[in-house]
Amino acid sequence: MLNCAIVGMGRWGQTLVNSVHGRNESGLRFVAGCTGRPERAAEWAAEKGIPLLPDYAAVLAHPEVQAVVLATPHGQHAEQVIAAARAGKHVFVEKPFTLSKASAEAAVAACRTAGVVMALGHNRRFLPAVAAMKAMLAEGRLGRLLHVEGQFSGPGAAAYKPGMWRADRNESPLGGMGGMGIHMVDMIIHLAGRFRDVRVISKALVSETIDDTTAMLANLENGATVTFATLSLAPRFWRVGLFGTRGYAVLQGHEQLTFCPLEGSPETTSFPVTDIERAELEAFARAVAGGPAYPLPPEEAIHGVAVFETMIHAATAGSACAVPA
Predict the structure, then answer these.
(1) Euclidean distance between the first and final Cα of the chain, in Å?
(2) 296 vs 319: CA distance, rounded Å
């Protein structure tokens, strides 16, 4: 059993804990935690039996803590991952991994030097429908990949108020990218490969805090094109599509996958609902225990950050920007 500490007990930190709490078969348990506003989490932590420690330093010094799960503001991730590695703690970190390619590389290097497992929380990689899409492409059912289409949107920014960390443009550059869109960037990398360049328009049409409308046009290294959008003041929406010379595969939501061959009619398959937070944490525990490697290679984690960082530059430049290798 892997003894973990939850760092950050806001809505998402609590979601992660709740996904595995009380399930011995998950391979991990939470034995401590800390958060920026302990008064808001004290009742929940007591209910879960998680002792609240005064700060992150106390978490890293705790002798029972073998791993940390970071559900903290984006800008803190790099330093927190590096500190955990130096303390000999395994790390599960929520997305975005970091906000710059250089800091992502430094965090990965620290974990490798310390010999600890680092896992990044791109939970959609654990969807059975995504595995089916990846297999379709690998088996040639879609033919030559021509284009990838993605959108991940939601209404979250409606609740953002000045002073909240998610309402800070330094923490949420390009509006919905940090909370939502970065998941779709990782999904595109996972399904279709690395990005070569990006063009971005990002603006606030309604929001008084962060951008509410962000759109990207890109090329992948394999030649396929990409169109992508993330809206932070719109109804929740998830869609990713692969379009090739022999067919297309479109995932609408997490469970409805439609495949259409070049000659034939579309067929939709419904997949079972999957607890993807539980799946990612259990995969982390298995990797720490010496089982299969966590199914998100560090190189892909770094590349995802490089794409995000390049998107920020592209939005300002108003032209295409190459993603650094």
Answers:
(1) 38
(2) 30
Q: Is the dihedral of CA 151, 154, 158, 163 positive or negative?
A: negative
Written as six digits, the tokens of 247 are: 């067919």
Quick check: pTM over 0.85?
yes
Structure tokens that stand for 198 in this block: 């990006």
Long-range contacts of 133-138 (CB under 8 A, 24+ apart): 133/191, 133/240, 133/242, 133/249, 133/251, 133/257, 134/190, 134/191, 136/242, 136/247, 136/249, 136/259, 137/191, 137/192, 137/242, 137/244, 137/249
Alpha-carbon dihedral sign for residues 97, 98, 101, 105: negative
User: Which domains, from first to last, does the chain contain?
Assistant: 2-123 (3.40.50.720), 125-273+285-322 (3.30.360.10)
Compute the chain's Rg from CA coordinates: 20
> pLDDT tens digits, residue range 139-193?
999 999 999 999 999 999 999 988 888 888 888 889 999 999 999 999 999 999 9
Instruction: Find out whether 30 and 51 touch, Cβ atoms under 8 Å.
Output: no
